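Q: I'm writing up a methods section and want to include an example of the input and output format. Could you take the sequence below and give the corresponding predicted structure tokens, formatted cleanly so I can copy it straight into the document?
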Amino acid sequence: MRKGRPLRRAHPPSGTPAAPDAPRRPQGEGQWQRISWDEALDEIASKFLAVEQIHGAESVWPYFYAGTMGHVQRDGIERLRAVRGYSHQYDTICTGLSWPGYIAGTGLLGGVNPEQMAEADCVVIWGTNAVHTQVNVMTHAMRGKRRGAKIVVIDIYRNATMEQADMGLVLRPGTDGALAVAVMHVLLRDGLADREYMSKFTDFSPKFESHLQTRTPQWAAEITGLSVAEIEAFAHLVGKTKRTFFRLGYGFSRQRNGATAVHAALCIPAMTGAWQHRGGGAFHSNSGTWGLDKSQLEGTGLQKGQPRALDMSEIGPVLTGDSKALQGGKPVYAMIVQNTNPATVAPDQTLVRRGLLREDLFLVVHEQFMTETAELADIVLPATMFLEHNDYYTRGGHTRVLYGPAVVERPGEAWSNHEVINAIAQRLRQTEATFATTDRDVVADTFARSGFPALEEVEQTGYVDKERPDDVARFAHGFAWPDGRFRFKPDWQAVADKKGYRWSCDPAIMPPFADHWDVTEKTDAEHPFKLATSPARAFLNSSFNQTPGSLKREGEPSVFIRIEDAVRLDIVEGDAVIVGNRRGSVELTARLHNGLAQGVLIAEGLHRNKAHRGGRGINMLTSAEPAPPFGGAAFHDAAVWIRKAL
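A: Here is the clean output for your methods example:
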């Protein structure tokens, strides 16, 4: 696709808006025509202006996420949003549950340098299949293992990461908080808690200790599916191993209780005092420590009005006219999508696809592949890849801001995100200097505003190392709350204030202390299984389900089912099965797997919808309902049924 010109649908819609659930124009051969960039950009500007004039600027919704990962090409869309007063995007789909949970404890999204896993005596990899998703984590952890360190892996099925572990704990989905508080019960009961550290650096109190007295291993065993012996062995290992490094992932946060689960797990190293020791402590992401000034990049000073911020995870409800999701405002009539593929990745695909198929929605997709979102667009623009444009990059798993220059020529007529946003703004008669910059200009400006060395200097090394001093990273002078104390009793409103989060639930229902919060989607007689949609090794994101090599390695869409469950349902290896709930149904191939709890299903990988028999992908089954406390997609929290296909 990238070798050619922009595409316009051959028979674009015309006239007045149709009903919200009206069918899209026909698909198939001859549906596209090649047009010039000038034609494409002129039409985009014309349609955006028409929507602004008829419905108001908030009816245009630029939509993006992190497909390119570089800040300039990812976040530059915010300049267009700001200067036109378009609807904002409330970013929830990836970090909306995990980040609040971590900040609730430490007050800052940062922790011990992850390279120190190699120096730990015990590494706890909690809720992330790092072999599939985080090569750097496994690199550091295995260096430690070669020194004799123990590796503990906590997850909801026995996966490739757990195969490397000395201790593997397979939980029922959504029960991580129960394990965490039971571990703290054992630490206190058996004299393994560092009371001196807690007295100096945490808000540990008699009320919290009393609360934990009821959270026994026996209580947690009933909830988690672990044995009492497993819970106590884990507690003793981390309690007696001072240099224990907790690497907390994103996977276990993708439940409706994900934020409280992350907070509860983070409390364990605060109770053992692991933060005091090099090679000990905790880490989730360094995203709160970069100190980047992105004001020009994002057009902060250009903001027009105070537009609503629509929840990106609720794209389905937003586009199908849900008044609450639209915050009582007008529908969205125009979108430009960059760096994401909501027709595959967003939750509650029935609503997402119905919304994207509206005849009255003008949809522009700027993409590298003809994704399932691009297939539904009015105009498709070919995009550059990361080796073909200038940008800078940060990662949650290391301490460096990387400069990534363009090193190969772009194919055909592909344009970068930065160039597209500039060109649309110029056609909308925006004359601000920021819309005449190059991507390299923006990198240099951001570095200068952030107090980094000049770009020419950074080019020599390739990065700026933002590692914080070790004592600061392990909060040796106090945590990032006003009183300097880690919080076992979280102040969720203070978390919201730090990050600009908005409540998706009544604050009064939040647990007062670190705890297991029983708010996940419940199984019942009709939906007796819990489904999680875990990442596949060759499908790190939906871009990879476009490439021949990844498609060959992953094969057809499948679902893991425990052997006992399969026998009871007369399902054998390789059977065609249907998994469903009130949101929809999906056809998959059964794979028998005894490394998961009874009543649990795991569907690895985000295959294209069209790769499934029936054309419906796995996110037909996931919910777009904002999870508490501040929203987020609970991708691993769906109650479902499963049966053999007829």
